[in-house]
Design brief:
This protein is an alpha+beta fold. The protein contains three helices and six strands, in the order ββββββααα. The strands form two sheets. The protein has a three-stranded antiparallel beta sheet with strand order 1-2-3, with no helix packed on it.
Length: 92
């Protein structure tokens, strides 16, 4: 994984996931994290009814929202980690 000049996260020679990453709720069933161009990067499914949630092993809506929010923060967190690493490559 590497960071491009524009702040996007790149995996492999061509795949880039430009920030910001946003969250949207879809069909009252999941949260979708998308990069700046609109490509879906992650789906976090939930169910509010306890019996169905248990049977399907899904998250609560709040758990799914929090996981999607933390996932959407990854570009900023990774960029911060890169900036805190000294030029010799060894963390301080």
């Amino acid at each position: 994984m590497r960071f491009e000049e524009d702040g996007s996260v790149a995996v492999g020679p061509r795949a880039a996931f430009p920030p910001p990453w946003t969250i949207e709720e879809a069909n009252n069933a999941c949260f979708i994290v998308r990069h700046a161009i609109g490509q879906a990067l992650g789906y976090f499914y939930f169910e509010d009814e306890p019996g169905r949630r248990s049977a399907a092993k899904l998250l609560t809506k709040d758990e799914a929202r929090r996981m999607a929010a933390n996932f959407a923060k990854l570009p900023d967190l990774l960029r911060g980690a890169r900036n805190s690493t000294p030029s010799d490559g060894n963390p301080s």
